[in-house]
Specification:
- The structure is a homodimer of 250-residue chains.
- Chain A is an alpha/beta fold.
- Chain A folds into two domains: 97 residues, 60s Ribosomal Protein L30, Chain: A (2-Layer Sandwich); 138 residues, Alpha/beta knot (3-Layer(aba) Sandwich).
- Chain A is 30% helix and 22% strand.
- Chain A is built from nine helices and eleven strands.
- In chain A, the strands form two sheets. Chain A has a six-stranded parallel sheet with strand order 8-7-6-10-9-11. In chain A, strands 1-4-3-5-2 form a five-stranded mixed sheet.
- In chain A, β3, α4 and β4 form a beta-alpha-beta unit.
- In chain A, α6 runs parallel beside α7 and α6 packs parallel to α9.
- The N and C termini of chain A lie far apart (44 Å).
- The relative contact order of chain A is 0.14.
- Chains A and B meet through α6 and α9 of A and α6 and α9 of B.
Amino acid sequence: MKETYNLCQSMLSKKLIKDIQSLGHKKSRDESGFFIAEGPKIINELLDTIPEEVESMYATEDWVAKYSGNKNVTVISDVELQRISSLNTPNQVVAIVKQFIAYEPADYSFVIYLDTIQDPGNFGTIIRIADWFGISHIVCSPGCADRYNPKVVQATMASIARVNVFYDENRTWLQKQRKDIYAATLEGTSVFEESKTGSGILMIGNESKGLSDDLMKLATRKITIPRKGNAESLNAAVATGIILSHLLST
Amino acid sequence: MKETYNLCQSMLSKKLIKDIQSLGHKKSRDESGFFIAEGPKIINELLDTIPEEVESMYATEDWVAKYSGNKNVTVISDVELQRISSLNTPNQVVAIVKQFIAYEPADYSFVIYLDTIQDPGNFGTIIRIADWFGISHIVCSPGCADRYNPKVVQATMASIARVNVFYDENRTWLQKQRKDIYAATLEGTSVFEESKTGSGILMIGNESKGLSDDLMKLATRKITIPRKGNAESLNAAVATGIILSHLLST
């Protein structure tokens, strides 16, 4: 199948390496309108679902040997991969992908609202959970991680292409909503006893501080996951998954 | 309160730095019988629950200023912290902690069995989930991450001190069990419809390959988390949390 794509085997220029590396930083991502996705699993899925957004790819021979599409791929060495990768353990292929247009959710059934979720792994995992449960929108307070942080993208496992992630920069979005607003707290009604719903907003708080007071005031329902053991708290992404699995009507 | 503990302000010797750094590696941990815990949140909780196991602590002045216990603490600079820390973002304090004795669960109500869970964040998060739901034992197949890997310890948030993590080196433990063995799969009975139980074993498979065939054969119940959206899979820790929250009787 090698005839079906352009195979460019070349040393990457210093400028190109620098340009790709710069996409590890929010400022460069914002200015360029691109982000980095890495690893065969995510990139193969992006190529399946949004091929037109994948701008360019840089991959080692292992990956190229298995690739049967018709996009341009630059073959690189392991050392070059190491240099352009944003991950601790680079994995065969790096793609430069066009950012998606984020928009304020107006017409929706269910939204996850994240308050200052800073850990990129948690944030990306929550995007993946939303995609699993068929939730199309996440709204983020200022202070959340950047959705195009390479570790966020990695944790979404390509769900980033299917979930609209909107940053509520002025913290005004929630106040305008008229649906039930559920707050995930350590003290509230057991989510096991909460009525199932097809519509509403679930607020998830910061990993160590929980939900901020101004958001908590907007909650119409306070819910909790009953604890039987001794852990002080649950990971924010795990809590999100558990609550959604009990709250959403099947 | 500074009079109540020994404050050793000294440059760490090269040998000591090397010894602490070596605990980032499984071999040195196994040989020494110690592991590293990092960060105020975990270390404060270890000091509360198992103070006698905390062998020594190295902390910057910020942390020491807030510490009111009577353990030896060596005050170190930010640069020294950076050198001895196993984390990308070191956080005020590093403790050397005695390893716990792991044992084969014989008498138990519920056990989580992990098949080749390799991501330390997932592994540690699952230990924390077990602790939240009051599960005292995790059994691991060979190929799981090491429970004392610094990133595992970090993700457990001190739950590592409360959950027995046993490595089933010969892969024989499961075969001897007579309780219900639940397999988490992508195709099975909906966990939303499964009867609640107070006893059994939940098998969770590898992040990308799922459960291996020999383990799957031992399953008495195959269960799944119904998907409504498009994500290909759920994170292993999130899946564990969701399944336990539906399966365990309250």
